[in-house]
From TrEMBL:
InterPro entries: GSP17M-like_dom. It comes from the Bacteria. This is Magnesium transporter. Residues 1-21 are annotated as: Disordered. The keyword Membrane applies.
């Protein structure tokens, strides 16, 4: 098969977003369960290259971590700036013959000051509209395991065994 730009198409996932293909062979409530099912298929020498895990009913979940205050904002800005300043000081220190420690200290101080300034400006511009910190995560309502038709029936059989759990003969 060739690509639209000419040449051979490499194996692996498509470069452009495309809907998944295959037949559903199982459905799970969590990604961990779907991943465990695919691991089970791999352990049983199933062609896992035919398998796709698809998250269905996607949701953006934002978990609130805490209230923001000037102290937290400035502290986070100072820490962020300090890391950047140390990195910049390290790079500058590599290109000078003497004064490596001075370059590191200068980078640290300038990084902290700029981190404080940018954090304060950003927080002040928000005018209290978002006085909390949070973490966002994309999750699915369920996770379907799809398989190409040529191996779907065997995949269903193996996952049915997994759902039954260990039997007396497996011990």
């Amino acid at each position: 098969m060739s690509s639209p730009l000419g040449g051979r198409r490499s194996a692996g996932p498509p470069r452009l977003p495309t809907p998944p293909t295959g037949w559903p062979i199982a459905s799970y409530g969590t990604y961990g369960e779907a991943q465990q099912a695919v691991d089970y298929l791999a352990e049983n020498e199933f062609e896992v290259g035919d398998v796709t895990i698809v998250g269905v009913d996607l949701m953006l979940v934002e978990r609130v971590l805490g209230r923001l205050s000037w102290g937290r904002v400035l502290g986070a800005g100072a820490m962020s700036g300090a890391w950047f300043g140390l990195f910049a000081g390290l790079l500058l220190g590599l290109f000078v013959n003497h004064g490596f420690a001075l370059q590191m200290i200068t980078g640290l101080v300038l990084g902290v000051l700029s981190g404080l300034a940018f954090a304060a400006i950003g927080y002040r511009m928000s005018r209290g509209r978002r006085d909390f910190s949070s973490a966002s995560q994309l999750v699915a309502g369920r996770y379907d395991v799809l398989c190409q038709p040529r191996t779907a029936e065997r995949g269903r059989e193996l996952l049915a065994k997994l759902s039954l759990g260990p039997t007396a003969g497996d011990a």
